[in-house]
Amino acid sequence: MKKKEISIITAGLLLSALTAGAQEIKIKDKIVEKADTSLVIGMTFDLDSLEVRGDRSIVCTPVIVRDDSIRPLTPMIINGRSRHILYERTGRNLIENKEIELRRRNGEKQKVDYQTRTPYAKWMEKSEVALITDECGCGWDSLQSTRSPLFAINLAEPIVLKPFLCYQTPKVEAIKARAKEGSAFLDFPVNKTTIYPDYRNNPQELRAIRETVESVRNDKYATITEVYIKGYASPEGSYSNNAYLAENRAKALRDYVKGLYHFDRAAFTVDFEPEDWAGLEKRLETMSLPDKAELLAIICADEPSDLDKKEWKLKTLNGGTSYKTLLSEVYPALRHSDYAVKYTIRNFTVEEAKELLYTDPKQLSLSEMFQVAQTYEPGSRQYSEVFEIAVRMYPDDPVSNLNAANTAISNKQLAQAKRYLNKTTDSSEKQLALAAIAMLEGNLDQAEQLLNSLKGKSGVSEAVDKNLEQIRLKREE
Fold it and tell me: What is the pTM of this model?
């Protein structure tokens, strides 16, 4: 026998009762088992309160009933003393006649364990067991409409909500443009623009630049298109001199890089900011100087437009006490050269993308990862992994977060799904995901409200209808 599916087993409680004339047959310990293609019904009849005259019989026939469908089960014949003797003399075979016979011993406690098996039909999934009692010999046809309900049968599988979700297709990148960026804090002698590779901290700063360039240069899938350098000076000194230093120190770094590498198609672009006032404001906001508010007021003021006068006001504020701190702790960090190595990555076939997804996923666009996902069964481990890798590679992209939220919902990781959805933009797919979370959290009213607002929306209407149907069935469960 295959593994049984058992429903409704309640023992030790008085469950049902029926009246036989003015007497009572009690039912307890009911069992309903679905085994293979059969349905097993079991119960215990308590006859303690039943009185049967010696020359009388009571025929009790349990039935399974639902609407117009009815299935009689093995009848139980309860005989008085003389009728029992007569029954035995007839030599009836209980098995052949598919019946149970017993003698009622009036005044004594008497329990009868009843169990029978009948072929299973789909309509029995949600039905009830009732009892038809014949005390008069009236026959089945006249009695089958007068039955006493005993207990319900519910063999329906519990509704497990599995919300339907809609993934977003990322836009295809015509050109996969990327950039690696950094900041170099090179040391120059006062008012000099020549780079001395061994001067102070220059060895490690230049090494970091070379490593950035070479990480792209040695990438077989990448083509460098531009090396961008922007020089900054601090507000110390005259604006005109700082402009000269910022521009020419940036050009010196450009020439240093050009002297090391030869790129056929790469452009070298130099830009400069004479004085990094934005950087000064940002760093000052993190400090706790006594006149911090006054310093920020000077830095952020539109006037004076002459930056040399603005710098002089900083220098002379409250005797210049805080300015000395800025000069020693902040200004050195404002003398920097920001750089970016810009490059493109070639496009990949789906088979190439499948391999790179696990070996070098940074090479892939979101669109290429999405194409890989389409080769797997939705909901499979590999399918989910693609979107989990995508959101790690593109942690701030709304599409990658929406799709990762969907996989998290499918895996019942609802808290994680909510975090992903916080980084997405409003869309029908996002509303569908929020409805799915509400469904799984048992908030069916909220889920239904969200789903109804999406009815007829392009791309999600089929999923909306399927989810609403699940909610309906769950409520009817």
Answer: 0.68
